[in-house]
Structures are given as C-alpha cells and as structure tokens.
C-alpha cells in the first residue's frame, strides 16, 4: 500500500501518467515545429501560427463532412486525406502570405510580429464569416476515439498513440529535409549567408517562400491532428499560441533539438505537477521556472548561429 | 400552468414541426395597455428614445472575438422575441426598434458601448452581456446613467443590482437541485469537482462542496485548469485513481471540447455512469462543438432544454428554427435571453410607462406564463423563480429531460452558509 492505493493501482497510475506526459510532449513538439522552422530559419515571429493550425482543423472538418456525405465507405480512413489537405491548404496560404506580406519585412522582426498579429485577426474573422462564430464538431472515425485496455486501470487512448506516431514521423521528416536533402542544404546556406548563397546560384527568394510555406504546412497538419483532442472554432488557435512560443523561445530559436528538449522538459514538468497539485498551479510553476531559466540563459537551452 | 408530467421520450424536430403550423399568438397575464391609452409625454418623462409609434432598445453582445461562439444564440433569441412582440402589437402600442452594438469579447468595449446605448441612444432597455466579466464592466455604467439591463446567463450569484434583471439562474438554483437528484436517484456518495479557473466555476464549486459536505458525503478531489487549457489527461488519471461516483464538471469554452474528447478517449464510458458525469456548463450549444457522440450519457443540470415537451416550448423552438435555420440549436442561455424582452414588455405595461424607475418598481412579481421553460416570476431580488431540470445527453446532441423540480426554486444570490 502506498498512501490510499494498492501497489498495482500506483504502478498503473505511474504508467498512465507517463503516457499522459508523452502525449503532451508530442502535442507540444507538433505545435512548435512549424513555428521553430519559421522563427529559427527566417527570424520571423509568426503570430498567426495558431490560425494556420486552425485552417488545418477546418480542412479536416470539411473533409469529414465530404466523406460522410459522398464517400461513407471510406470514412474510417478520411483522416489521412484530411491531413494531406490540411498541409496543402496551409502550405499554399503560407506561401501567399510570404509573397504578399512577409517578404517586405525581413530584418524587421518586430514589424513581422505586428503584421502577423494583424493577419491572425483577419484570418479569425474570415473563419467566422465562412464557418460561423460557433465551434464546429469534427466527427472522427470510431477507431480513433477508442482506447486499448491493457489492464483494468491502464487504458491507452488511441488518439494519443496516433499523435505520438505522427509527431515522430514529421520530426524525422523535418530532420531529413533540413539536414539530408539538397533543399535543406540550400535553406541552411541562405540562413548562414544570404549574399553568398545567392552568388552561388540559389534562388533565395524561393527558399524563403518554401520555408515559410513548410512551417505553415506543418502547423496545418498539427491543427488537423488536434481535432482529436481539442476544439475547432475561429479563435481556437489562440489556445495554442502561448505554449508554442514558450517552447520555441525556451528551446533556443533555430535549434530543432532545442525545441524537442524544451517540449520534453516543459511537458513532463507540467503533467507531473498537474497530477500532484492542480492544473492552474502546474501552469504557474512551469511558467515561473521557464522565466527563471530564461533570465539566466536568455538565448534558450540550445542555440545556433543565425544570420544577423 | 405547471408542467405536471415529463415524458421520458423527447420529441423529434420533425414531429414538432409537423405539429405546429402557425406560431400561436403569445399572450400575457397582465392586461396590456395600448398606445392610445398612454400618451408619450406620460409614458416617458425622462427623455428616453420613445415616440408615439416606436421605442428603442439596445442589444449588446459579442458578435466578434472569443465569446461570439456563445453569445450568438442570445442575440438571435432577443431578436426573435422583439419580432414576435412587434407582431403582437408592440409595447404600449409602440413598435420596438433595436440598436445592436458589438462588445467584441472585450470588457472595456462593453462598458463603452453600454454608455453609448444609454447616453447617446437613450435606449429604454438593454438586452445583453454574457460573461460575468462583461456584466461587471457595464454595471457601473448602468447604475450611473440609470439604465435597465436584462442579463441572460446562469452565473455565480453574489450580485443584486437595481439596474439588472437576471433572467438566467444564479448558482444555488442550478447546483443544489442537481446534486440532490444525483444523490437521491443515483446513490452518489463521492464527488470530484472540476472547473475552469475563474469566478463562476470556483464559486459554483464552493457552493457544491458546502452542499455535498452538508449531506455528509465526500468530495474526493477538486481541480481547476486555466481557461483555454486543452490537456486534461492528468486530471483524468486522478479521477480514475480516486474513483468518485460523480464527476462534477464546470469546464467552459474550448476546454470543454478537449475535456470530453479526452475523457472518452481515456476509456471513461459515460453511459455506464461509473463514474457518472454531471455538468452545469454544457448546453445544446456547447454540444455542437463537443460532438454528441463524445458526451452522450452525461447529465446536465439547468433550467431549460430544447427538448422540453410543453406547448410554449414547441412554439418557441419552431419559431426560432424558422427564423434562424433548421440546424440551429437552443441552449439554456438562449432561452433565458428570449425571456428578456418579454419580461421588459410585461413590466412596462404593468407600469404604464417606459421610465426606468417605474419599470423597476413594477418588475418584482411580473410573471410569464408563456415562457418556453414553463412559468417564471421575477423575485424581489431581480432574479427569476424557476424550475431546475436534469437532462440526459443523447448522441444527436439533444437532452432527454429525466427530472424536474416540483416547485419553483427561489433565487438566492447571497446564500448563507454557502460562502
């Protein structure tokens, strides 16, 4: 007996709490990846990140509607199509935004902050006008909403597993894209020395556009995945933005490893404190710790050299 | 006209529509006075926006920003009520015109717009606000310029302003009957209290805890999460460990969706009622975002459900859907918002005047036999006597009403022994 609980109960809870922490970790990484790419590689503070996520969520909603009406036989796998559509939509919108707005504001990070904040308001109102002010309900295939019962107490949510798998896949994809492909090589060349990269024949403008689009596209996939755990409404993106920035800044801008390390430490700290204290207290303590560490180490946990 | 029996089966929309061809004319208990009987100079001694043919009122809700999700239904209900009142001859023979302002989910904006409606537009009444924060922001404005606000949301109580009529339930009305029911009918012995972290859930849970402890039962846990929180796995684990009989949930907004989806994904099947879930923060409106399949089997405790089988409600639901679309849903607050214009009309006609002070004096005792929720009466403390009902959530997003209190419950915004 430990406290009021039997040994089995206690170990089960440890296991489930560990799983909850890992789910939170995956969610954080998925949220932050797109922003980390844009902020880290381009120095653009994208306040509209949450709205790109919600675009993905709305695409999932449209997909679920479409499949339930026209292709009910394929409804159980519509989610995969939805994620592709979510990526495509956010990617294209991202490129458009880069072309129409961001490219005039490079080297003016504070102006990008204001401009993308304005963009986030515009997008929110656009969602409200198109989809209505109320939240929409995204119907999910049954297999995604179930759980696997390992013992009487331990039940592993399938959507948690799904998010974990997806996060691993996308993180690996980003890693190979950035560090093992020619496109990644070009992107890193532009970050390190724009003039030189241009001189050797890299189309730096295209690289910028693709990078911004990619960051937004990943946000779209994240938004699509989050229809499993959260709400889909015009302003739902705001729910994620604070955590996302926290992770990117804490991890050190521009470092993929930093983002992952910071997501891991924040998620584990938060879910442990949530369990022993309360939800609000967990948030307060996590934020205080992060602020404390950032005061000692303003550059974040990990840093890379980026262009000045 | 009391609702004596409650059918366990709720009526489908189709049957309901088929049954009602035309909206029956709504009538009032108090004998209405007509325009020709009251000259404008007598009915309006304080310079309100009243002419021989019209009277202007304000509608003040958020139609942009976070709260637009919730407040849209209230705006729709208020406009429907105003339309119906006009169709039935208006107030004191005068047609109601409204000026709508957008609070934009921002509390200082609410205060500013309230001032505009009172000072510039001289509106005779304002129907509006949703969150307690917005009400607290406009309260000093209404008290300074002596306006009349009809506030529709169920809320935490602890307030009684001469310038506000509260058409939703205060906390004790909503909470105590619900807990009594779950103890009596379901034999609940232990409760886990959960809420979003702001004044309403905290005050409501305080009342719930006091009441549970008074009954000699156990509160096995109490937890709050910041507004907008989207991760509930830790608290779900805690609930699994503590094994309470009842999860008492007051989660709001986007968090609601996350909470119910994760509860379901964690293998807590609410239809098994082990534990049973009782909420006071989920109406038909919220279920739309959550998804009926994610909340089916939960119980909600409030005064109104769209599926209420009485004739007033059938007429109201069909008129609402006719005006705002077949797929619209009506939650507790939407119905309470609908009462606002009707209660104001009744008070004005009882007073024979639009003057705020006279309307205020006439308000206590005003009764509405045509309310969709059945029968309501304004208490001295400006809240409504009302019944509390328990709804059982269905897959299609509606609730089956499984219980209603026999008597009207007295509003008690300052409950002794509960603070």
Automatic annotation (TrEMBL), chain A:
Residue intervals passing through the bilayer: 20-40, 52-71, 77-101, 153-178, 212-233, 239-263, 275-296
Record keywords: Amino-acid transport, Cell membrane, Membrane, Transmembrane, Transmembrane helix, Transport
Pfam families, A to Z: BPD_transp_2
Subcellular compartments: Cell membrane
Bilayer disposition of the protein: Multi-pass membrane protein
GO molecular function, a single term: transmembrane transporter activity
BP terms from Gene Ontology: amino acid transport
Listed InterPro entries: ABC_transp_permease, ABC_UrtB_bac, BCAA_transport_permease
Gene Ontology cellular component list: plasma membrane
PANTHER family: ABC TRANSPORTER PERMEASE PROTEIN (PTHR11795:SF447), BRANCHED-CHAIN AMINO ACID TRANSPORT SYSTEM PERMEASE PROTEIN LIVH (PTHR11795)
Family: Belongs to the binding-protein-dependent transport system permease family. LivHM subfamily.
NCBIfam families attached to this UniProt entry: urea_trans_UrtB
Protein name: Urea ABC transporter permease
Species for this entry: Thalassospira mesophila
TrEMBL record, chain B:
The UniProt record lists the keyword 4Fe-4S: no
Gene3D superfamilies: 3.40.50.2300
Keyword check for rRNA processing: no
Signal peptide stretch: 1-35
Assigned keywords, A-Z: Signal
Pfam families with a match to the protein in the record: Peripla_BP_5
Record-linked SUPFAM superfamilies: Periplasmic binding protein-like I (SSF53822)
PROSITE patterns listed in its UniProt record: TAT
PANTHER family associated with the record: ALIPHATIC AMIDASE EXPRESSION-REGULATING PROTEIN (PTHR47628:SF1), PTHR47628
Annotated NCBIfam families: urea_ABC_UrtA
Designated name of the protein: ABC transporter substrate-binding protein
Organism: Thalassospira mesophila
């Amino acid at each position: 007996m430990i406290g009021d609980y039997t040994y089995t109960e206690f170990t089960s809870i440890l296991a489930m709490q560990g799983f909850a922490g890992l789910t939170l970790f995956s969610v954080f990484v998925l949220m932050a990846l797109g922003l980390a790419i844009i902020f880290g590689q381009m120095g653009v503070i994208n306040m509209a990140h949450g709205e790109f996520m919600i675009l993905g969520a709305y695409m999932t909603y449209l997909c679920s509607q479409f499949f339930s009406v026209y292709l009910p036989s394929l409804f159980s796998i519509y989610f995969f199509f939805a994620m592709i559509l979510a990526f495509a939509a956010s990617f294209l919108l991202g490129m458009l935004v880069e072309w129409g707005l961001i490219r005039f504001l490079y080297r003016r990070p504070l102006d990008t902050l204001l401009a993308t904040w304005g963009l986030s308001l515009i997008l929110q109102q656009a969602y409200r006008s198109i989809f209505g002010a109320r939240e929409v309900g995204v119907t999910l295939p049954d297999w995604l909403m179930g759980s696997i019962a390992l013992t009487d107490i331990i039940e592993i949510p399938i959507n948690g597993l799904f998010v974990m798998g997806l996060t691993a896949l996308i993180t690996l994809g980003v890693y190979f894209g950035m560090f093992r492909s020619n496109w990644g090589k070009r992107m890193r060349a532009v970050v390190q020395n724009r003039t030189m990269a241009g001189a050797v024949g890299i189309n730096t403008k295209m690289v910028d556009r693709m990078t911004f689009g990619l960051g937004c596209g990943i946000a779209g996939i994240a938004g699509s995945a989050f229809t499993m755990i959260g709400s889909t409404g015009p302003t739902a993106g705001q729910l994620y933005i604070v955590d996302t920035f926290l992770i990117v800044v804490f991890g050190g801008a521009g470092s993929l490893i930093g983002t992952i390390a910071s997501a891991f430490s924040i998620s584990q700290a938060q879910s442990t404190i949530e369990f022993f204290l309360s939800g609000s207290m967990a948030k307060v303590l996590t934020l205080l710790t992060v602020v404390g560490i950032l005061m000692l180490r303003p550059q974040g946990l990990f840093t890379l050299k980026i262009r000045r | 006209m009391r609702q004596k029996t409650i059918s366990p089966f709720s009526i489908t929309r189709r049957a309901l529509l088929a049954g009602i061809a035309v909206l029956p004319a709504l009538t009032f208990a108090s004998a209405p006075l007509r325009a020709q009987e009251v000259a404008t100079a007598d009915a309006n001694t304080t310079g309100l926006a009243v002419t021989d043919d019209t009277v202007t009122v304000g509608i003040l809700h958020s139609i942009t920003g976070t709260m637009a999700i919730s407040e849209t239904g209230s705006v729709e209900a208020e406009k429907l009520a105003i339309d119906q009142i006009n169709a039935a001859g208006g107030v004191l023979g005068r047609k109601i015109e409204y000026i709508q302002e957008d609070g934009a989910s921002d509390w200082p904006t609410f205060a500013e717009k309230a001032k505009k409606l009172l000072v510039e537009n001289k509106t005779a009444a304002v129907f509006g606000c949703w969150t307690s924060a917005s009400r607290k922001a406009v309260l000093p404005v209404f008290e300074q310029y002596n306006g009349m606000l009809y506030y529709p949301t169920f809320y935490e109580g602890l307030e009684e302003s001469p310038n506000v009529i509260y058409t939703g339930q205060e906390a004790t009305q909503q909470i105590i009957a619900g807990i009594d029911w779950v103890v009596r009918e379901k034999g609940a012995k232990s409760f886990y209290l959960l809420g979003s972290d702001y004044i309403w859930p905290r005050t409501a849970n305080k009342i719930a805890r006091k009441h549970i402890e008074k009954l000699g039962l156990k509160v096995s846990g109490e937890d709050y999460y910041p507004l907008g929180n989207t991760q509930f796995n830790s608290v779900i684990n805690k609930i699994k460990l503590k094994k309470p009989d009842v999860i008492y949930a007051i989660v709001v907004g986007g968090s609601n969706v996350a909470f119910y989806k994760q509860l379901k994904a964690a293998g807590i099947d609410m239809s098994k009622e082990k534990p049973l879930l009782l909420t006071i923060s989920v109406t038909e409106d919220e279920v739309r975002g959550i998804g009926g399949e994610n909340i089916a089997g939960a119980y909600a405790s409030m005064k109104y459900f769209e599926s209420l089988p009485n004739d007033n409600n059938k007429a109201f639901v069909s008129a609402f859907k006719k005006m705002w679309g077949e797929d619209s849903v009506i939650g507790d607050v939407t119905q309470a918002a609908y009462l606002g214009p009707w209660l104001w009309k009744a008070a004005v006609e009882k007073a024979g005047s639009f003057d705020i002070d006279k309307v205020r004096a006439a308000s206590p005792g005003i009764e509405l036999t045509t309310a969709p929720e059945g029968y309501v009466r304004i208490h001295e403390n400006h809240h409504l006597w009302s019944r509390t009902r328990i709804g059982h959530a269905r897959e299609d997003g509606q609730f089956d009403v499984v219980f209603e209190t026999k008597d009207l419950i007295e509003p008690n915004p300052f409950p002794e022994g509960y603070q």
